[in-house]
Specification:
By secondary structure, the protein is mostly helical. The protein is built from seven helices and two strands; from the N terminus they run ββααααααα. It folds into two domains: about 40 residues; about 190 residues, Up-down Bundle (Multidrug efflux transporter AcrB transmembrane fold). The radius of gyration is 26 Å and the shape is elongated.
Length: about 240
């Protein structure tokens, strides 16, 4: 049988194909790739045809774009808030360097839990960026305090990591355990919140482990770079005076 009616948008004929996705047997990413591959092949043979993905896929694309710009604003805000108490342009970057590792942990958490990344997963990652810097900030602040007491740099870093080890571990573990009931919840109404909880819980744990090992090393590297920079600046200043 033929079409019951002919739809047009901007005076062009439009055919709408609708379907409900069975998420238990098919992943949305695989279906999206299959649709794009098929439509690309059709468009190759019929160049006048145009297509677009609408519905839930379109809404997710718009949500991801909105979250992307929001994330940039959040990162700038975090940097400014860290630069004020630390009184440094470089130390906030050192504190924020754990954020990519937190995102990696969130993605690994979805893989371990066997769930797909959703808009709520991304929102959880955005919230994660403001949480994972807490452990780094506590550690850097402790090292700065020890340095101000005329303690050698290596000892300040070593003692700072040792003193803040228990606080950092307990903070991360209590956060993970607090989110565990939500991640294990089977109720239908809680399912859309589980990806957000997974992003936060696994991201915090992974970033904490990285913080304890990577941040002390980075502190020493940043300090060495700062010393070299000051020496280079002094040498250039003296050379200009001689000229």
């Amino acid at each position: 049988s033929g079409l019951v009616d002919i739809d047009r948008v901007n005076r062009k004929r439009v055919v709408t194909v609708k379907a409900n996705l069975d998420k238990e047997s098919t992943h949305e990413a695989n279906l999206r790739e299959l649709i794009i591959t098929g439509m690309t092949d059709i468009k190759y043979h019929y160049p006048s045809i145009n297509y677009s993905l609408e519905g839930e896929m379109r809404e997710k694309e718009e949500a991801f774009d909105s979250v992307f710009y929001g994330t940039i604003f959040v990162l700038l805000g975090i940097y400014c808030l860290l630069a004020i108490p630390l009184q440094s342009y470089f130390q906030p970057l050192m504190v924020m360097i754990v954020i990519p590792f937190g995102i990696t942990g969130a993605i690994l958490g979805h893989f371990i839990a066997g769930i797909d990344l959703t808009v709520y997963s991304v929102l959880g990652i955005v919230a994660l960026t403001g949480v994972v810097v807490n452990d780094s900030l506590v550690l850097v602040d402790c090292v700065n305090t020890l340095k101000s007491r005329s303690v050698t740099l290596f000892k300040a870093v070593s003692d700072g990591a040792t003193r803040r080890f228990r606080a950092i571990i307990l903070t991360s573990l209590t956060t993970f355990l607090g989110l565990a009931p939500l991640m294990l919840e089977k109720d239908t109404q809680a399912q859309f919140l589980i990806p957000m909880a997974v992003s936060l819980a696994y991201g915090i744990i992974y970033a904490t482990l990285i913080t304890l090992f990577l941040l002390p090393t980075l502190y020493l590297i940043f300090d060495d770079c700062a010393v070299r920079f000051r020496q280079l600046k002094l040498a250039l200043s003296n050379s200009f005076k001689e000229i």
